[in-house]
Structures are given as C-alpha cells and as structure tokens.
Amino acid sequence: MKKSLLVYLPLGVLLFSACQKRVEQIATPPQTPGQPVVTTSALDKLRDSVYLFSKEVYLWEDLIPAYEQFNPRQYQGSTELAAASGIMNAIRKLQPLDRFSFVTSRDKSEGLQTGQNVDYGFFVKAASIDVAEPIDSVHWYVTYVYDQSATGRAGVQRGWYINKINGAPLGYDQASITTLNNTFFGATTSASFEFVKPDGTVTAANLSKTSFISNSILYKSVINAGGKKVGYLVFNQFFGEPSRTELNEAFGMFKSAGINDLIVDLRYNPGGSTETQDALANHIAPAAASNKVMYKYVFNKKMQSGNFPLLKTRAGFGNVSFAESVNTEKFGVTGGLNLSRVFFIVTRSSASASELIINNLKPYMEVKLIGDTTYGKPVGFFPIDINNLSIYPISFKTVNSAGNADYYNGFAPDKAAPDGVTKNWGDVKEPSLASAIRYITFGNFRSSNIQSSAIAERQMRVQKQLEPLTQKLEEKKFSGMFIEQPK
User: Fold this and answer.
1) pTM recorded for the entire structure
2) Cβ distance 287 to 163 under 8 Å?
3) CA gap 209, 183 in Å, rounded
C-alpha cells in the first residue's frame, strides 16, 4: 500500500466531511448452496461486515475461525458500536499480541487525521511530590493542554493539578478514577474544576467539551546548553496533513537558528499517521540516509497476493498492491540540519508511530532515549468504513532497514528519568529534559549532585507505583499507528 501508488486520505482516518459521509455497502456472508437466502436485519449485516472485513485484512487472519464457527451475530449490544466492538474484542483475544484492534465512530475516526476533537482539551496523570514515605499526597496533574480547547483558552497549564471536580476532592482511590473517567469520557459535557498552581494558589474554571483542532506541537524552543544551540520540540500526536504543516514550520525555525542538537519530546504521544512519521523522520535523518530504506510494511499473505475482494469494493483500494516489494518507504531527507544524533523523551504512553520513528532512525544515527520504557506497538491498521462506524483490525507490521520489527516490549531508555509533571514545558529543571541537556553539555548522563540523583531515583519508584492508576484512566484513549485512508 505504498503511498506513491495512492491518492491518500492512528486512533487513522477519513477525509470526507461530516455532512458528506458515504454509507458503505454492507458485506454479506457466504451462502450455503441449495439453501434459501435468509433475510437479515441491518444489525446482522453490520456484524457480518465487521467479521468479513477483519477476516480479510487481519495481520493474523489465519487465527480467525470460519464464519459458521465464529458466528458474528452472537455478539449483542445496545448500539451498533457496542455490537461491532464485541466482535472486534473477540478477534483481539485470538492473538495475545493484539492489544490494539478497535472500532470507533466515523466522526472520531476523522479526528485522528485532522486533529478535530470534541472534549475538554487536556489530560492528567497521577503523581506525588512527597519526599519521604509514605506516599500519601497524590494529585492528578495536568500533563498537556491543547491551545484552542476550552481549557487552553482558560489559561490552564501543564504543572497544575486538579484539586476538585464539581466540588468533589480528588485523591488516590478508585472513586477518583471513576470521577475522572466519567468527566473525561462520559456523557456529561461540562464540569467545574478547581486547579492548584505550582505556587499553591487556587483557581476555578467552569469548562465545557467543545469542538476544536488539536495542535500536534505543544511547545518548541531553542535552548542554549554547553555552548550549543539545542532544538526542543514537544510533539503530542501524529495527525495528518495539519501535523505535517506544523512540523515544516518548527523545523524551519530550527534550521534558521542553526541548531546543533535536537530533543524531541514524545512522552505522551500515542502515535497516529505513518505518513506524518515519515515527514518527521525526514526532517531529522542525516543527508546520508537519503534514498535508503526507512521501513517496509508487511501485510498478511492473502493481502500480499491480491486476495482481498471485499476491500477492493472500497474507494481507493481497487488497484492497490499490498506486496512487500512495493511497500517499502525510503528516506527523502528534507531537514538539512546535518544532525548525527537525536534525543527522544519517552514514557509508557509513547506508542506506535512514536516507536516507529525510533526504530527507523536507529540504523542511520545515534538515538538516545530518556524517560521510561515505551509502550511496545510495532503493528498498525487502516480504517474501513461500515455505515457510521470505522473498524481498525490490526493489518500490518513494520520492519526497519536492519530487519528489526517485533518490539512488543517497547524500547528501554538509555537514561531512566521521571516525568516531571510539576514543571511546565521547556523548564530546564524538569528531570527528563535536564537529563538530555546534561548529556549534550557533558557527554554523559551522570550527575555530580548526589542528592538530586537520589530524588530522581525515588521519583521513578513512585512513578512506577502510581502507573497502574494512570493506566486505568488511559485505557479509553487512542493508541496506534495507521495508514491514512485512500480518497
């Protein structure tokens, strides 16, 4: 599905406007010869389609039983989305490596490409600033805020924490998780938040879930460190064309500034468009990588041999080849920065396309990882539209030029460093950013300050203890990489 062969469209996505959506033809299951054709309901046809398309494109399609054995119509639900999700969940359970296949609405699917969103426009994680045991002062810190969201317009910043929602205090307990889940992902569209700033002052804000365009780049600057100019970029999600426009502007700034080193902060980046990953990789890679293999897509054997009749009925897929020989992406270096190395700040929330760029650049330049082990997602998908839904069965894996592909356990950091959620973007005292600057300045990650090292180690231990709490909140967020849908 090489991009040059297509006219192109994580959490993946559509270019059709909301008022011009197509209702795709529903697929039908094979009929037993000699048996009468049974009239089926619209919901049955939908469930059949989810199964039949997944059976065709799933990377591990040989694990999916035949139609009669799988029986997609057994999966019930109060809505089409619930029924379709039940089928996808059952498929996902067939392959232990698949933590990712999902179903979503076409509206939300579109947002993964365009950055169009309808929510509060910020997120949080659990953290503690305790300097000694026990860990009892856990707060829910704002990790990032999108500029054009209601929260961004209200002036809320990373480093603040939520003290109360609708008057109810938040703490380290399941009740707080439930409150946060209901607030961020539930049906309610507004809430009253009480925030505490780093200086201890309290501010209240009545916020609503509004429609806005998410900015991929949360922060960019040039930092002077060790006599060098260091570009620092916080890149939060690989959306489609809007992200690539933002990247062009940021790297134009870095080139004009004459940066000597680059730090790319992917700590909360869940992935997204592989085409946008290509663009970022081409901005970073050295000139010597031009025209050399970046990575290749690998699809299931039926897809590679052209045996995908249902998918061929979808616009843009009729003449697509999924053979490995024509699905190799090569570098077309555009940055002109002449970098020999790059630093990535990562966490367990760094997934998919965020890991793809690490894997793709490693054969061509020195790559230093700072923070925590990444998520571990070397596979991806592309959306298939069925009525008002988009299904995302895992449909490919990627392999870099050195043959590395199966990093399901994630990439371990060269330097473990805590996520300093009490610091705003660009604060050189934030632990992960400080570690990168230390290496650039002194050539190693060692700190001469024994006390600060001990504090950082303790913060990492606390972070690990609180990680399950944050993961419960992150379960409903998108994580993945996708090929943009053909037009």
Assistant:
1) 0.90
2) no
3) 10
pLDDT at 324 over 90: no
Percent of the chain at pLDDT exceeding 90: 74
Judge whether residue 2 has pLDDT over 60. no
Q: What does the alpha-carbon distance between residue 467 and residue 129 come to, in Å, rounded to a whole number?
A: 15
CATH class of the structural domain 118-213: mainly beta
The C-alpha atoms of residue 390 and residue 368 are separated, in whole angstroms, by 36
Is the backbone of residue 159 left (phi > 0), alpha (psi -120 to 50) or beta? left
Radius of gyration for the chain, computed over Cα atoms and rounded to the nearest angstrom: 23
Q: Is-contact 322 299, C-beta < 8 A?
A: yes
- Could you give the CA distance from residue 163 to residue 161 in angstroms, rounded to a whole number? 6
> In the numeric block, which tokens belong to residue 231?
């570009």
Element spanning 134, H or E:
none
* Domain range annotation of the chain: 3-114, 118-213, 217-380+396-482
Number of residues in the chain: 487
CATH code 3.40.630.30 for 217-380+396-482: no
Amino acid making up residue 138: V
Average pLDDT over residues 208-230: 96
Closest CA relative to residue 179, chosen from 189, 122, 169: 169
Determine the Cα–Cα distance for residues 220 and 252; give it in Å rounded to an integer. Answer: 12
Among 230, 223, 193, CA closest to 208 = 193
Report DSSP state, residue 74. Answer: G
